[in-house]
Design goal:
Helix content: 40-55%
Largest sheet: 3 strands, mixed
Radius of gyration: 20 Å
Order of helices and strands: HEHEHHHHHHHEEE
Shape: globular
Number of strands: 5
Number of domains: 2
Structural class: mainly alpha
């Protein structure tokens, strides 16, 4: 199977089903049978690593290596090195200091991020923008593409994690800030944007702090 067929959602699914690391092997640059399949894979894996990092999961749990089908010794070396590095990191969440329940929430948020239309559009345009340019013929550098990735990934990760956390019960800005390790002003800015999009609603107060919940909730709630 071409490495270009490895969807980021498949990687996240592997983690959700108990994998502590994922190794992706790809053809050497310029030798892909499908022309740019391995380059497409590179963009997808870089994106997935950025999402993992943003959510507090070590991006070294995902590795992509280049080799030809004739380089068996290189494959053995790469996979052995990866296995050793995962052993050093330990089970998913161990080196990150995150418990299993929290890891599952973050990975579920990560899957929503990689399945979002915005993120899929960005990663799908990576090779085109690097080689042919955009509609106006402007060719992007690796640095510019990485900045675009980071901006889109950051916003989507925050939005999806807020949705995951507020889906079952309402949260205050303070609680979200504490759980997500983000400044309160950044959480509040995203909540305001999400409210305009109809993704969250203000549903009451916890003492004097507004409570937010995913969805357009009609009834008010007050925690005491």
């Amino acid at each position: 199977m071409c490495s270009g067929r490895v969807d980021p959602a498949l990687v996240i699914d592997a983690y959700l089903h108990g994998a502590d690391g994922v190794f992706v092997g790809a053809c050497l640059r310029g030798e892909c049978h499908y022309s740019t399949g391995n380059l497409e894979a590179e963009g997808k894996m870089l994106l997935t690593q950025k999402i993992l990092k943003q959510l507090g999961i070590n991006p070294d749990r995902l590795v992509m290596r280049w080799m030809s089908s004739a380089e068996g010794a290189k494959f053995v070396r790469f996979t052995t090195e990866f296995q050793d590095s995962i052993k050093e990191l330990g089970p998913m969440g161990y080196s990150e200091g995150i418990d299993r329940k929290e890891i599952e929430l973050k990975l579920t948020a990560a899957k929503s991020v990689v399945e979002s239309k915005k993120v899929r559009w960005v990663v799908g345009k990576r090779t085109e923008f690097l080689n042919d340019g955009n509609l106006y013929g402007e060719v992007f550098t690796e640095h510019e593409i990485n900045r675009l990735f980071e901006e889109v990934v950051l916003d989507e990760c925050i939005i999806q994690e807020i949705l995951m956390r507020t889906m079952k019960k309402p949260h205050t800005v303070h609680k979200l800030s504490e759980r997500m390790h983000l400044p309160k002003f950044k959480v509040l800015r995203h909540l305001a944007d999400m409210r305009r999009m109809g993704l969250v609603s203000h549903v009451g107060f916890d003492n004097n702090s507004p409570l937010w919940q995913a969805g357009e909730v009609k009834t008010a709630a007050v925690l005491k």
